Amino acid sequence: MGQLRIHDTLVGEGLPCFFIAEIGINHNGDLDVAKKLIDLADAAGCNAVKFQKRTVDVVYTPAELAQPRENPFGETNGDLKRGLEFGLEDYREIDRYCRELGILWLASCWDEASVDFIDQFQVCAYKIASASLTDDNLLAHTRAKAGKRPVLLSTGMSTLQQVDHAVEILGKDNLLLLHTCSTYPCTYEEVNLRAMLTIKERYGVPVGYSGHESGLAPSLGAVAMGACVVERHITLDRAMWGSDQAASLGPSGIIRLIRDIRLVESSMGDGVKRIADRELPIIKKLRRVGA
């Protein structure tokens, strides 16, 4: 199904799963919290962290921004959206800090200006959120900016026909599709992991899984089914304020998940049926002679 390279890591079927810790907006507008989440992802063994970038006045209408919404930053939805948005100096520090730790970072960009903003940091890849899958202009702009860097496209809230159209715009070179269900948190009945196989067969590009469930099982199942990339939201505490916290993994959850992903990978083997060396003395002990 092909391979692609995220920075210096080769990603594809049969290779170790590339894990992206989605910080998103779980930093709640606090750079110190963001750096603690980067620390958590690095300590857990994640390959990269991901943020979200929006030009607030482009992504949201004036009416949406004026809607009443009590939040830590004020009384309106606009206060919240602006309060959650990091600026240039914040991202310069994020870039410096990730380089210091040796962990990659990228961002989901929700508008063309945000793509241009993030591009100055020469991130390892671009992510397009499920909500943006039908935004033709954003897809084309992202592909143009990304060049030979990978574009990761989430496919939640989308029909196969809509994904067809998005893939036509993006092209299949250096493209990775992420199966996901865009409910927060997602129930196990909504996950539909077999759709990942449908996507893999239909498009012939590397496929991964972006999970919004509260547990670990679907993410591990996705790895066993061949997910090249897994993305999960992380948080310092699931009880923190914020709309994405409940669908996120806390410190113990992300550490367990990365550990178990690597154990699943070790368990997959090469598919050749053979007697393990450590089974030989068991054969002598338990099998009847001549059986």
Overall description:
- The strands form three sheets. This protein has an eight-stranded parallel sheet with strand order 7-4-3-12-11-10-9-8. Strands 1-2 form a two-stranded antiparallel ribbon. A two-stranded antiparallel ribbon has the order 5-6.
- It starts with a strand and ends in a 5-residue tail after the last helix.
- It is globular and about 80 Å long.
- The protein is α/β, with parallel strands linked by helices and 291 residues long.
- The protein has a single domain, classed as TIM Barrel (Alpha-Beta Barrel).
- It has helices spanning 31-44, 56-59, 62-66, 77-84, 88-101, 112-119, 136-146, 160-170, 188-191, 194-203, 217-224, 251-268, 280-286, and strands at 3-6, 9-12, 18-24, 48-53, 68-71, 74-76, 104-109, 126-128, 151-154, 175-179, 207-211, 229-233.
- The mean pLDDT is 96.
Across the major sheet, the strand order is 7-4-3-12-11-10-9-8
- Give me the CATH architecture, please: Alpha-Beta Barrel
Number of helices: 13
Rg (CA only) = 21 Å
- Rough shape? globular
Largest sheet: 8 strands, parallel
Number of domains: 1
Looking at this structure, what is the CATH superfamily? Aldolase class I
Unreliable sequence segments: none
